[in-house]
TrEMBL record, chain B:
Matches recorded under PANTHER family: VESICLE PROTEIN SORTING-ASSOCIATED
Organism phylogeny: Eukaryota, Metazoa, Ecdysozoa, Arthropoda, Hexapoda
Organism, as annotated: Drosophila grimshawi (Hawaiian fruit fly)
BP-aspect Gene Ontology terms: vesicle-mediated transport
Family, similarity comment: Belongs to the STXBP/unc-18/SEC1 family.
Matches recorded under Pfam families: Sec1
Name used for this protein in its record: GH12312
Organism superkingdom: Eukaryota
Amino acid sequence: YHFYNAIDSEGVESNLSLIGSSYAKGRCTVEAELCTDTLRLLKLQRTLTAKRSDEVSLNGLSVHDTMMELLRRGDLKEVERMKSDYKVPDRRYWWMRILIMAERLNWLELEKF
Amino acid sequence: MFPYLRSHRVNLQLLQEKSCRDLVQLLESIEGTKLIVLDDSMIGPLGLIAKPKIFAERGIKLLSLKPEQHFPKESQNIIYIIRPQPSLMDHLANHVKANTQAGRLFHIFFVPRRSCMCIKKLENKEVIGAFGCIEELAWNFLPLDSDLVSMETASGYRDVCVDGDTTSLYQAAIGLVQLQRLYGRIPKIYGKGVQAQLVWDHAKHLAIDEKALYNGDKGAIDQLILLDRGIDLLTPLATQLTYEGLIDEFFGIRQNQLTLPAEHFPSYFASGGDCTRDAAGNGVDSERSLLGDTDRKTIMLHSGEQLYAELRNKNFNEVRMLLALKVKDIQLQMNVNRQGQSVQEIKSFVDRLPQLMEQKKATSEHTAIASLIDEHLNVHSFNDDLAAEQEFMICADIDRASAYIEDQIACRAELRNVLRLICLQCAAGSGLKERVLNYYKRELAQVYGVEVLLRISNLEKAGLLRTQTESRAYAVLRKTLHLTVDDIVEVNPHDISYVHSFYAPLTARLVEHSLKPLGWQTLKSQINNLPGPTFEDFQVQLIGIGGRPVVGATPSEASLMHARRVVLVMFVGGCTFAEIAALRFLAAQEDNNVEFLIATTKVINKHTFLDSLLSL
């Protein structure tokens, strides 16, 4: 499955489905799944950015960074949904929560843990 | 010329002198004033071969290669000394176009050999006519120290495993033949691994025509052990704990040179010394004259310097102690109460003074370096990483996703380090469970973005990441070869495991075992489940026509059995300073009665090794 690498490095959104299907052909299910995930993510990011045009653009961020950014905005509902959508493990989810709280000096809430 | 290369059995100075002669010959075949242009990756190696004096005597100027360059009018010949990389040819073509004038000629010396691709590229650019002679300098192995030669090709392992380019193997084979030409036939060859096998096959093939190699007596080297990096991927990823290894990991040693910000060496500035420190570094080399950096200090590191030779291979914990001792010792000698002394005593003291000052300077230098390392060691993350590493080495919990790695990913720690830990876990478990591997992939892609998959696929091709097969080579070998020991002795060690605190590099352990009588035979069955073939070969003296048959064990040969054996250990794909330290430690043991010569494609450490694999 070496030749997909060449395509992938361009990293354009339109290519992602192509790459995903080539990965699937090469029997790399995880990679294929991740490609479709990314595709979904990019769409989500666009709608989210469109909803609030005033804030930092989410486009092109990774799942983790997107969730961090959303947490920073306090959009907990969206984050929870992403968590289940992208199968983010609990451990990392709580790490994110803690990091963001610490960032905002939200010590009171940290104590609740 | 380079005193530190001298040793009693295999004199690497021969190699250096030969390389230097080649260069001088080529230079003298060109008439007129000369200007040498060096590609960046050649500056260091050139310094290992030739002193700047050679060029100064001949009025040759050195420049480093840049895309845009204008040459002074008076130089008639422009000589490029470069690696055969097609991308460099573009620069050359530009130079030629920008700098053509009557009576000027361009020359290229390719190191270590010319490539058709480069020449073709010049032809396509229609500048080939401007080049007078295109030669090659066969510098396959560059002498780094009295027992160490290196090809200085950083991407050796990557080229073969990821890109499928076996040039470096071929070069290693030519290098081997060259070594045999200089030092004589090597009678016994042992090897392990696919790449090692390839190198040896090439070398044998190349040497077939050279009857002289076979007819002569046995050379200075008794035995060759070829080891493939692919059989031991744990060692290059682990943190080295020897002094030299740590210096290399934190600051990087390039061709024996360590460059540090000068601010850490106040005494050095105070003494007004700029770059003429002949005692410790006899390589005031081209780099400095080329790119005169004043706020960086370059230190030469090799066994020519007494103190460094003593410290380099020690575990860092021992180094601290030794340095403290040294300081005390010097203080004592300096501050002897001189009132009650006779004139004679004072005279002898004064005679010793320069030597003492020298010692003092060296000690202060190394204390400075050691304190810099200390700073790095005291960072929490270093110790946490090390702890995680060591857990893997003793095969604790290698079947599950490690909590430490999970945390690192969640904190968005440096990708390189995270991947390193995952690869370590993989190497220790001889593969990861498929579920775990997929879990890691998912996590990495989610945190660092999908692009990370490309890097992972590089690692998979190189065999650093893979799913588990039935055999558990590492777990088994850990027991049979005692790769990890229980009692940790870092100071005055009696086992090679001190280089990683308690883990003995597999490669060094293999060498150690092969030294025993019938060692290789017993090893053969034990290392069966490591990847790649195990092979051995003998190069016997050919019996000439009508010549007397050679009796196997003549008395002289029997007496040779008691002399120290010289073993050439060749690492195909690079080796670490920790492995070198381990081998030197073995050689220092009395009962082994052996001397090592180490050949490698490049001295690597955990960072450089991974970087070369990760780059896209």
